Amino acid sequence: MGLALFDITIHVVDKVNLANYKNYINADNPNEPATFSYTFQFDKHILEYTYQKSDKNTLFSEILSINGSKLFEYNFESKEGDFAGIQNYPDLATLNWEFRDSSLSVLKYIANNSNLAPDSPIRSLIHFVSSMIWLSSPGGQANRIIGMISEISPMTTKLIEMDKVQEFQDFLNQNGVPDKLIVKTDVTGEKAIYIDYAKPVKFIEVFSGGTASLTAIFYLSLYFENASFVFIDEFDANYHFEVAENIVKLLQNKNFQSVLTSHNTNLMSNNLMRPDCYLILTKEGLTPFFRATERELREGHNLEKLYQSGEFENDR
Which of 227, 246, 267 is the last residue of a domain? Predict the structure, then answer.
């Protein structure tokens, strides 16, 4: 699901790790293009963006509408399109379409070749997509990232460069990792983070899967100020419930949308989030709790017990 949501970043963000996109087309319909459809709202403007791809690199068609009016539509196979709507936007009227690379996303071409006004809805769309962050399988060598941050390693080196080691130590201490950290020069002459034992030990050589996960989350949090949307897949796969709850709380008061995936039913609590913030993912789609039951959900309900008893199996 996360990869599907973030496919749009391929058209806007230059630094995307396409190695994350494997088995791209539906194996049950290998000859049919994959269709992606997004709806964005920025102030009073509604933007609908839909495109089809035959593989992760090859666009088949693309269409963008603003407030119900088509801005452009293009078919990459026939190389035919409708750009009449662009003339209604002075910021785009001077674009040179004659020399446009016909394999390049029209949206990306607009992003790279237009001087968009600060209040342009297209500018808002491009800024939002450029500021999305996706993190998968936090911990160890499995960290993968897409979007605003072009790389996630070496994280500890970045923390030293950003002078965030003390803040990182405080974060670990708050989440059950009591180690004291210091910065030393290793045998290669490079600075590295060490755990301050009687004989200091290099941090990355001894940290557990859970601590590696926390390292990835902390590193990610350094970019939260400029993020628009954060998706963390299996965010709590390597640590305890209390730590998972802390991570949820860390994200709650930020000025961006966030999605976390988990198999941990302990997180199903009205004390943590409202029922409309919890969704159940099945092969049929996503269903919020309040639509999966005929019961009127109240603050005093134990959501985890209701889920385990099968209460949320309606209309799924």
Answer: 267
Nearest to 129 by CA among 8, 18, 2: 8
Domain co-membership, 242 together with 299? no
36 and 157 both lie in a single domain: no
Q: 230 and 257 in contact (C-beta within 8 Å)? A: yes
Q: Read off the pLDDT of residues 76-110 as tens digits, 9 standing for 90 and up.
A: 999 999 999 998 888 887 888 777 787 889 999 99
Query: Residue 165: in which H helix or E strand, if any?
Result: helix 165-174
Report d(CA 278, CA 270) in Å as an integer: 10
The predicted pLDDT at position 309 comes to 84
Total residues belonging to the chain: 316
Question: Which CB contacts under 8 angstroms, 24+ apart, belong to 222-226?
Answer: 222/162, 222/164, 223/133, 223/148, 223/149, 224/254, 224/256, 226/131, 226/148
Residue 313: domain span: 271-316
Answer yes or no: do 286 and 254 share one domain.
Answer: no
Same domain, 174 and 294: no
Asked if residue 293 lies in contact with residue 316, where contact means CB atoms within 8 angstroms, the answer is no
d(CA 193, CA 282): 42
How many domains would you assign to the chain?
3
Residue range 130-172, pLDDT digits in tens: 999 988 765 544 567 788 876 655 788 999 999 999 999 999 9
- For the chain, residues with pLDDT lower than 70 are 15-19, 137-143, 150-153, 314-316
